[in-house]
């Protein structure tokens, strides 16, 4: 049986992203395994099973061994891993939460991650996002489900300086959002960049 090549919907945007200046960089994040977890109560047994304390404060994320745990709702989290295949990750997470009355669903193919870095990326994001992204309010460890342009996204702040973000967008909206971000970044491209 022939092995299928893993591709993503933004391969055609690679060249356009490379043309952006350092003040407003956009790059496609490598493919990661993602699992949506639903769990009614979070206690010490969850940490023992998952190896991470799930964030219980709204709109936050925490680093996990080889990924992140992102709060999506009062009983929902998005876990990611760069070290496991989607099948391995889902199986491990499911084994940890099922005895606690929880569920785990592989959603790895659902979202594409875009990494936005540079001194002007907050300016790019604020053109289409109604969330206050000032670092005093939305610093490292903050996350939010919001609209960016006309696409629903999960936005994570990776720094306290307002210059490093990850945007998770549904695969079907990835091309639209890539075009929107490139358009929003146009004013920061100088003739010599």
From TrEMBL:
Instruction: Report the Gene3D superfamilies cross-referenced here.
Output: Heterotetrameric sarcosine oxidase, Probable tRNA modification gtpase trme, domain 1
InterPro entries found in the cross-reference section: SoxG, TrmE/GcvT-like
Highest taxon of source: Bacteria
Q: Pfam families, per this entry? A: SoxG
Q: Can you name this protein?
A: Sarcosine oxidase subunit gamma
